[in-house]
Each structure stands twice: as C-alpha cells, then as structure tokens.
Amino acid sequence: MKFVAVTACPTGIAHSQMAAENLETTAEERGHEIHVEVQGAMGTENEIPADAIAEADAVIIAADTSVPTDRFEGEVVVKGSVKDGVNDPDGLIDEAIERADGDAAAASSESTAAGAEDESDADADESAATETTAAGTSDDADDEPTADAGSRSADRSSSDGGLVARLKKLFS
C-alpha cells in the first residue's frame, strides 16, 4: 500500500522527527511505501507532492497541532498524536490499512450480498456462498461470519475509542 503522513508538534524538532522516522521505518519494514512530511516551528520539511497524495491509499496525521487537511479531501485519513507516531506507528499503519481496505471490502461485500438477494435460482445462491467462503468466512454456521464481523467492528471501535481516549488524555 501507499501512504502519505504528516507529523507535527508545536516545536517540530524532536518528537515530530521521531514520529516521522518511526512511521517511515515501520511502513518500509512491512513492505509499504510512505512519504512523510514534518511540520513544526522551523517550517515544513519534505513536503508531500500532490501526485503522492493522489496515489496514496490512506493519509496518516500524527500531530499535536493543527494540520490543514483540505489537500487530503476525499482521502482516507487516520489521525493520532505525535506520541502515537513515536510509540505506536504499527497501530497507525494498521488503522490506515483497515480503513482503506475496510471501505473497499465493505462496498464489495454489500454489492455481492445485494446481487445474491436479487437472484432466486440455486446456482446464484451457490455462487454467492462460494464468494463468501473465498472471502475467508465459513458457511458452516451462520453465527461465525457475524461473530467475525463483530470482532472486527469491536477491534475498530476499541482502536478508535483508544485513540479518542488518548487524545482526550493528551489535551486534558
């Protein structure tokens, strides 16, 4: 996947640089491309070009100051603190992957489910069941896919809740 990221803190000297380095290192170790811009009192370093934003699957913002986001309009944006970028770059990248893939997977599964409902013959039902199985769910028990989807939703909720809680703690 391709990511762009912005790290920013009020001084932009140490923590922004550490967050940028950790995001770059972690993304590259995991086989992803990333372009990280650092903002601070000294100005902007390594500014993200418009074509990199257009090609990005997601945008990661690890900032303790206001970062203008108008140039990221229409993109998947994951926000966290500079501390998240320093201490948990994997978490930010995982959330970006989940949101970028999750939106595409949700749209795909919704259209597959709608198509299966529209067709009433047995072959269409078998085809939909095969697609569901290929997507990694089991058709042995109806509760299993629901439990898996619930687990993913719970993970996403706890991730967002954790991030929100961390931000509230940071700003309080």
Please give a structural write-up.
By secondary structure, the chain is an alpha/beta fold. Helix content is about 60%, strand content about 15%. It has six helices and five strands; from the N terminus they run βαββαββαααα. It has a five-stranded mixed beta sheet with strand order 3-2-1-4-5. Helix 1 packs across helix 4 and helix 4 runs antiparallel to helix 5. About 35% of the residues have low confidence.
Features of the shown structure:
single chain; 172 residues; alpha/beta; 5-stranded mixed β-sheet; 6 helices; 58% helix; globular
Helix content: 55-70%
List SSEs in N-to-C order.
EHEEHEEHHHH
Q: Find the structural class using helix and strand composition.
A: alpha/beta
Q: How many beta-strand segments?
A: 5
Strand order of the largest sheet: 3-2-1-4-5
Q: Low-confidence runs (pLDDT<50, min 5 residues)?
A: 105-160
Q: What is the arithmetic mean of pLDDT?
A: 73
User: Beta-sheet strand percentage?
Assistant: 15-25%
Rg over CA atoms, rounded to whole Å, is 19 Å
Spatial gap, N to C terminus: 35 Å
Helix count from the secondary structure assignment = 6
Largest sheet: number of strands, sense, barrel closure: 5 strands, mixed
Q: What is the overall shape?
A: globular
The quaternary structure here is: single chain
